[in-house]
Write a structure and sequence with these properties.
Length: 250
């Protein structure tokens, strides 16, 4: 009976970490994926990892209160892992929003069909393209590798180090801003050059309506630079995978 309770507790702990992780990571958290498929995948992965992952040494003697605290701890650890992944992936969306503001499309909003939330079209476009490139490079295997490494470092029932979790999330947030600025830097330089040229024309021809001319030029330049930039997004997929390997609290 005690062995059965120990196995059940270990299964619940693994289920908690996996479900917390896949609840917020990109692709799996999309609203377009049916809930039944999500539940089936989580249960399948839980069964797989429960067979190959060792449990904590003190699950046998865990009381009811300790078991509840372990479940809460597993959920926090899963959320921390997922949050790091989300922050790193958000770098592409952040760069898209920077580009939209430079193009003068800051108020352009539409419904995101994947998350059912309001979003801006350029950021959604870049994010979808990047995720498709990431999946085409077998990036979804990286999610399974993250879970596998987490159980190698912190088996089910063990307590991860809180400073490690907080440090990983903070570093992922700073990496998101740096990567977003890096992705948008060439376009920001192009828009800066456009503003300088428009300023020169405004001084040469004061009667010219700079505002009327600048809007289509900014939109056209933004679309042109985005089209030139899209092939380079594929080069960032491997770099993002390396960042996840370094920043994840494993």
């Amino acid at each position: 009976m005690e062995l059965m309770i120990e196995k059940l507790l270990g299964f619940i702990l693994i289920l908690t970490r996996i479900s917390s992780f896949f609840l917020i990571i990109p692709v799996f958290s999309w609203k377009t994926i049916p809930v039944r498929i999500k539940i089936a995948l989580v249960l399948l992965m839980t069964i797989f990892f429960s067979m190959i992952s060792p449990s904590g040494a003190y699950l046998k003697e865990a009381s009811t209160l300790e078991s509840m605290l372990l479940i809460v701890n597993e959920s926090l650890y899963g959320f921390a892992l997922g949050l790091v992944v989300v922050l790193i992936f958000s770098a592409v969306k952040l760069s898209g929003r920077i580009i939209e503001r430079e193009m003068g499309l800051a108020l352009a909003e539409t419904l995101d069909p994947l998350t059912d939330e309001r979003g801006q079209p350029m950021g959604m476009l870049l994010e979808i393209i990047f995720i498709f490139l990431f999946l085409s490079a077998n990036g979804h295997h990286l999610f399974l590798l993250i879970i596998s490494r987490s159980y190698e470092t912190f088996p089910a029932g063990s307590i991860p180090t809180i400073p490690v979790l907080v440090s990983g999330v903070i570093k992922a947030g700073s990496t998101m801003f740096v990567a977003g600025l890096r992705l948008a830097a060439p376009m920001m330089a192009a828009f800066l050059l456009l503003l300088v040229i428009l300023a020169v024309f405004a001084r040469i021809m004061p009667d010219m309506n700079i505002l009327f001319i600048s809007m289509p030029l900014r939109v056209g330049l933004g679309l042109l630079m985005t089209g030139m930039f899209l092939p380079f997004i594929n080069g960032f997929t491997s770099e993002f995978a390396e960042w996840m390997g370094k920043l994840l609290p494993l």
